Amino acid sequence: MKTTLNKTNTWVVLFVLWILALMVAGSSSFAQTAAPIEPPVISDPRNAFELSYEAAEDAVTQALTEKGVGDKVSATMNGRKPKPIFVYSKPITVEARGLKFDKLSGHWEGSLAFIADGEVVSAIPASGHFDEMIEVAVLKREMRNTDVIREGDVEIRDFSLSHTRADTITDLSGLIGKAPLRTISPFRPIRAEEVITPAIVKKDALVQMHYSLPGMEISTTGQTITAGAKGDVISVRNVTSKKVVRAVVENSDTVSILTTGADHAQN
Question: How far apart are CA 88 and CA 45, in angstroms?
Fold first, then answer.
């Protein structure tokens, strides 16, 4: 009889342990596959504090920047929605924690912790994409090759580094005072080869030609054969002798004739 009871007790113990093992395994599996926590229902919406997806993305952006991803980063979340990502009955902030990222693919993943009164009240897994950003000088309006770009025509905007090239103009000084080679649309990155220094001397214009040598200076009137910007070397015809010479554009009315040696040096 004693032996039978001992065996019965043993089977009971084993059965209980088996049930407990199933419960632990089930709860562990649930924890791994649980869906992100939905924002809690607030009985009085007037007392609710909402946190937007944009605020969560800003937290991820800050965390990626602190991790040295780049000087300027822009992060977006997968599954972004127009409604709040979290609602709570107290003022709430969000922090990105445990971030992992791949610069090659631009992918990030981690957790978003929602904090109220200095304590984490909830957390959800999150993932998304990020871009390294760069400041680029752009036009504020469409401009043609007859226009000269002024200070009021340009501004700085952020663009993804992957959408720019090595010769993309990043500084306002690279555009101000220049002219489009062809029509340029607004609010897009501009390459250096798309703008030129505008001509201040037009073709067939009458200009004063200056020629200087030690102890001698000659001035005469000439007619330009080609247009040119300040500093350009253009062809000019002496209206008296009809001789064509090479000269440097000094301003809209004056050119300096090159000596043979200087002309070769320019070329």
Answer: 10
The encoded tokens of residue 115 equal: 């904090």
Q: Is 248 within 8 Å of 239 (Cβ atoms)?
A: no
Does the pTM of the predicted model rise above 0.70?
A: no
Could you tell me which residues come within 8 angstroms of residue 173 by beta carbon, excluding any fewer than 6 positions away? Answer: none
The answer, yes or no, to whether residue 47 has pLDDT greater than 90, is no
Residue 181 and residue 149 in contact, taking contact as beta carbons nearer than 8 Å: no
Domain range for residue 231? 206-266
Whether residue 75 is contained in a domain is answered as yes
Residue 235 maps to a domain: yes
Same domain? For 146 and 123 the reply is no
- Residues 184-222 have pLDDT tens digits of 999 999 999 999 988 889 999 999 999 888 878 889 999
CA nearest to 103, candidates 132, 128, 125: 132
By three-state DSSP, how is residue 172 classified?
Answer: helix
- Other Cβ atoms less than 10 A from the Cβ of 27: the count is 10
With beta carbons less than 8 A apart as the criterion, state whether 40 and 87 touch: yes
Number of domains the chain is built from: 3
